[in-house]
Amino acid sequence: MTQTTLAITVWGWVGIGFLGLVGLIFLLVVGQYLQLWVQAMLSGAPVGLLDLIMMRLRKVQPDLIVLNRISAKKAGLDMATDRMEALYLSGGNVTRVVRAMIAAAKAQVELPWDRAIAIELAGRDILDAVKTSVDPKVIDCPSVSSGKQTLDAVAKDGIQLKVRARVTVRTNISRLIGGATEETIIARVGEGIISTVGSSLDHKAVLSNPDTISKTVLAKGLDSGTAFEILSIDIADVDVGENIGAKLQQAQAEADTKRFQAHAEQRRAAAIAQEAEFNAEAQKNRALVILAESEIPKAMAEAFRSGNFGIMDFYRMKNMQADTGMRESIGKHP
Question: Quick check: pTM over 0.70?
Answer without folding.
Answer: no
